[in-house]
Design brief:
The chain contains two helices and eight strands. The chain is α+β, with helices and mostly antiparallel strands and 133 residues long. A five-stranded mixed sheet has the order 1-8-7-4-5, with no helix packed on it. Strands 2-3-6 form a three-stranded antiparallel sheet, with no helix packed on it.
């Protein structure tokens, strides 16, 4: 009897789950959703030969009409830690955000990281890109 009751309850749960929209299952505190790396985002460390200066640049795709904030932060590896160099930020409602900023200090040879982060009202994502000069 118990086995039959359990199987009926299991079947009812499976039927209920198949009828419920996936988006309804995900409702709740979306601000707690954290992605390892921002999908649709990329960054670059560019060298301008005319100005003899480096730039950090990046772009990020998202939903049209959703307010987004896109931040790039440049770090240099010093020993086992990362030293802050500079950052750039942009925000808006556009589907594609682009940011570019000239680095005002001279970059020396070494290992660098651009940490990208994108924030919307419902999600947050961040991820690194690594470069060697």
């Amino acid at each position: 009897m118990r086995k039959k009751t359990f199987l009926v309850l299991l079947a009812l749960c499976m039927l209920l789950m198949s009828m419920c929209p996936v988006s309804a299952l995900a409702e709740g505190d979306e601000s707690r959703i954290v992605m390892r790396a921002p999908g649709g985002c990329n960054s670059w460390l560019k060298y301008n030969t005319v100005e003899q200066a480096y730039y950090i640049a990046g772009e990020c795709d998202g939903e049209e009409g959703e307010y987004k904030t896109f931040v790039l932060t440049l770090y240099k590896q010093v020993g086992s830690s990362w030293e802050f160099i500079d950052s750039a930020i942009t925000s808006g409602y556009a589907a594609n955000l682009y940011v570019e900023k000239k680095i005002n200090q001279q970059l020396t040879s070494g290992y660098y990281k651009i940490q990208m982060s994108i924030t919307t009202p419902t999600t947050y994502g961040s991820g690194p890109n690594y470069f060697t000069i």
